[in-house]
């Protein structure tokens, strides 16, 4: 049966799985309601009914998810409002009145009087943080909406650097945070700890897609995660940490919940189930990459802003590690080719010019300064391909 966790200071009882709304909608752009095919709408509604059937009453979407809000608006008013936790997210704007107009459009599409959770969508860099928290900024607008009874709790979503997330959390002005954290990407643990200190709800974004394309895992990952599927392993890994409250499942159809639900009966036994799998994954990384590298590769690396050509060295080395250790080449290619094409959502550049750059100064604090330029070139040769845009731009 579904399990629930207190979602920080909101006091909401949050299901450990949430129904994310970015994969069942018709289009990534707004269109007239008459253009939405009946079969697409029926599939979306069947997905919502299935979520509720298994106890997932948190339905999460965003203004940036195209027709998602409009399509949800055809079913949400027919459901018992008091039993639902509805969340939308609105993109941060330099003009806070534009932020308000976007929110009002969201609420109209959803056909609701209020949302339980409003997220400022994309505190990803210093600029978007400033647009959010400065006097008269988007956060102030959200607080006014809260006072008007249109919003119960305010949070933010982020793809930003850990230090920036911690900075936003330290304002103590947000009730929850949507962020990335899962087995293959544990860099944001310090942000989760900060959120815990501030009694904020913690929502994990896209653990199965951004967490490694786990709906189509590599044979090597399947073997290493046995007897669990990689998807169930990752769910169990995340939820074995009580600081994590819910994982977003971007269901495209009703059946997409089924594999995740296998995790629920394992939660009480996570302390026995996880260690042998974690050990195998770690040992495989040591074997393929070297123990010293695995333990120290990330130390002393520059940010992309500090690097000639804006090369995002930490991300590129991380993707190279995954491609080599776990054969996650398809995943690494998708993420690598977002570099230079996703603005502040996935910042920095690829390494195509690395042979022409002098990285000696920016790598002065790395134990592996001599190897890294070659590794960056190797990663580019392995992963470069056609440019990839964020889903919302497709």
Automatic annotation (TrEMBL):
Membrane spanning residue stretches: none
Gene3D superfamilies with a match to the protein in the record: NADP-dependent oxidoreductase domain
UniProt domain NADP-dependent oxidoreductase: residue ranges: 39-214
A Pfam family hit: Aldo_ket_red
GO MF entries: oxidoreductase activity
Coiled coil spans: none
CDD domains tied to this protein: AKR_Fe-S_oxidoreductase (cd19096)
Name of protein: NADP-dependent oxidoreductase domain protein
């Amino acid at each position: 049966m579904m399990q629930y966790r207190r979602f920080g200071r909101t006091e909401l009882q949050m299901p450990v799985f949430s129904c994310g709304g970015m994969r069942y909608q018709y289009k990534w752009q707004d269109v007239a309601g008459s253009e939405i095919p009946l079969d697409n709408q029926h599939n979306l509604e069947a997905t919502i009914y299935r979520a509720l059937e298994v106890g997932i009453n948190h339905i999460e979407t965003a203004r940036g998810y195209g027709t998602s809000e409009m399509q949800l608006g055809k079913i949400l008013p027919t459901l018992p409002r008091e039993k639902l936790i509805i969340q939308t997210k609105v993109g941060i704007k330099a003009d806070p009145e534009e932020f308000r107009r976007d929110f009002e459009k969201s609420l109209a599409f959803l056909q609701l009087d209020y949302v339980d959770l409003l997220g400022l969508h994309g505190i990803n860099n210093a600029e978007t943080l400033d647009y959010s928290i400065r006097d008269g900024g988007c956060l102030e607008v959200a607080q006014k909406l809260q006072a008007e009874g249109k919003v119960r709790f305010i949070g933010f979503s982020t793809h930003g650097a850990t230090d920036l997330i911690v900075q936003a959390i330290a304002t103590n002005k947000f009730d929850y945070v949507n962020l990335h954290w899962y087995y293959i990407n544990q860099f944001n643990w310090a942000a989760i700890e900060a959120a815990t200190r501030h009694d904020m709800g913690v929502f994990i974004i896209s653990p199965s897609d951004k967490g490694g394309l786990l709906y189509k895992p590599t044979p090597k990952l399947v073997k290493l995660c046995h007897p669990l599927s990689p998807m169930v392993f990752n769910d169990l890994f995340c939820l074995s940490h009580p600081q994590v409250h819910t994982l977003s499942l971007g269901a495209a159809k009703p059946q997409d919940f089924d594999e995740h639900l296998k995790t629920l009966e394992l939660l009480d036994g996570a302390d026995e189930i996880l260690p042998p799998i974690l050990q195998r994954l770690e040992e495989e990384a040591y074997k393929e990459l070297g123990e010293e590298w695995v333990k120290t590769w990330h130390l002393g690396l520059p940010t992309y802003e500090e690097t000639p050509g804006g090369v995002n060295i930490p991300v590129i080395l991380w993707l190279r590690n995954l491609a080599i250790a776990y054969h996650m080449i398809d995943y690494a290619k998708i993420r690598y080719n977002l570099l230079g094409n996703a603005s502040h959502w996935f910042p920095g550049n690829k390494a195509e010019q690395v042979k022409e750059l002098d990285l000696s100064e920016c790598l002065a604090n790395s134990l592996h300064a001599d190897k890294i330029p070659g590794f960056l070139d190797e990663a580019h040769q392995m992963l470069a391909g056609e440019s990839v845009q964020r889903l919302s731009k497709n």
